[in-house]
Amino acid sequence: MIIHNCEGVGVTVENMTIYMDNSATTPVRKEVVEEMIPYLTENFGNSSSIYDLGKTSKHAVEKARKRVAYAIGAEENEIYFTSGGTESDNWAIKGIAFANRNKGKHIITSSIEHHAVLHACKCSTSPTGSENHLSPLRFQTFNRKVF
Question: Are 20 and 59 members of one domain?
Fold first, then answer.
């Protein structure tokens, strides 16, 4: 297999899978899988519930929140866990639109954004009175080596 960089120079890669959609899903590191197994098999309670299994899960979530905050230099109350990218996009876009509704009524985004982003921008026009503007994509070639 030959992979070409921006300058058309090929790099030969043999017996290797190159996965280029890491923004959609990424292999889980072995250490993370090992850490998660008890919560996928035994301690799977709803962390918002009041029963013991739920309390065990809540403790695990709070421990994870503390670890993530420490790792990135944040406060624990700044760490939120979501179910995935769509929920995160919604929180970010709708939250910013709502918080800044008195500063303007425009959301500008690219027409090639993920549907979760486009839908969040479109939905943000209702509660905030914003207008959604899609910018056409313009490709630009950069003269730099990738490999």
Answer: yes
